Amino acid sequence: MILLTRKAEFSASHYYWSEQLSAEENLRLFGKCANRNGHGHNYTLEVTVEGEVDPFPALLSTLKS
Length: 65
What we know:
The chain is mostly beta strands and about 60 residues long.
C-alpha cells in the first residue's frame, strides 16, 4: 500500500455589494467584504490517493479520462 499526496496553494478574491443599498448600508452589512477592489483569501488544497503499486508499469494510478 502506498499513499501519494499532491498539494496546491492558490488565492481567490470576491466582494459583496448590492446596488439596492447605499454605500454606507453595504459597508455596514458586508464589512470588509464590501471593498469594491475585492477581498481575498488564501487556500491550500491537498489530495491523497491510496493504492497498491501495479508492478508493471510500476504505477499507483493512471490519469486517463
